[in-house]
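Backbone shape codes:
***
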Amino acid sequence: MNSPERLPLTVDLDSNRDLDSVRRVLRLEAAGIEAAAREVGSAVLEALDRLAELPGRVVVTGMGKSGQVARKIAATLASTGTPALFVHPADASHGDLGMIVEGDALLALSNSGETAELADLLGYAKRFAIPVIAITGDGGSALARAADVALVLPGHVEACPMGLAPTTSTTIMMALGDALSVALLERKGFSRDDYQILHPGGRLGRKLLKISDIMHGGSDLPLVEPGAVMADVLITMTGKGFGCVGVVDDDGMLVGIVTDGDLRRHMSQDLLAKPAVEVMTSNPQTIRPDVLASEALRLMNARTITNLFVVSDGRPSGIVHIHDCLRAGVA
């Protein structure tokens, strides 16, 4: 009988080679970023100074893989408070130079620094005194010489075994772009509120929703005075549809809340004749309008309640129901 082929051993050997390849790439690219972190210095500070004071936008450009990285850098800058856009070098030579105006800056990416397609962009920038910041792997290249500030990549080894495909170099460029974006964010004091304005959709937008974004206010507020009889309180409670009412004093301060639970606890023949102040729960749980909606949901779940009055300086300005949080996708 012929011996069976030992396929599992072959698969194991191939798997080991694959894992070795993956680890080698990750280590080479991580080493490149570590080198950049060690060598970063005055040039990046000058670049940050120019970008922070920029009255216009950061125009990011590059060809090939550098162009793909440039697109991502432009998107990250724009989403973190630094207006930016990507312009393709080839399109720039056919009319898109008109996108670049006085007050803008050019952030150009090229590992070799000799990308011919950048020539028209660099010439235009020089003609109209548009500052140029370069990210390049060669400090003596045409791009580095033409730039006002050159951020030169540290010595690195491309993870491609032939040393041809941009891998480590593009990873370092991407990391530098992130570093510039975050440093500018911190320098400008870009806040969670600013971030939410620029990210209204998707999971991030939902996570950053504030109570003021989803609360009910104005005529929707279920409010009564302490002396209101429970017959009228029930009418307000039913009409507003929140299953509760807030009790406010003559100064408009929230002094209590009447819920379904309070009704059950005070059930009696004379309940409807009692004033709200005798039935209400004093010092109810409230929340501020600037708190994240996710915190309101957490609080309602923890306290096993379905509503929170929103107060500013002790006065109710809104009410939020647990269903409001769920409808907004807050979880």
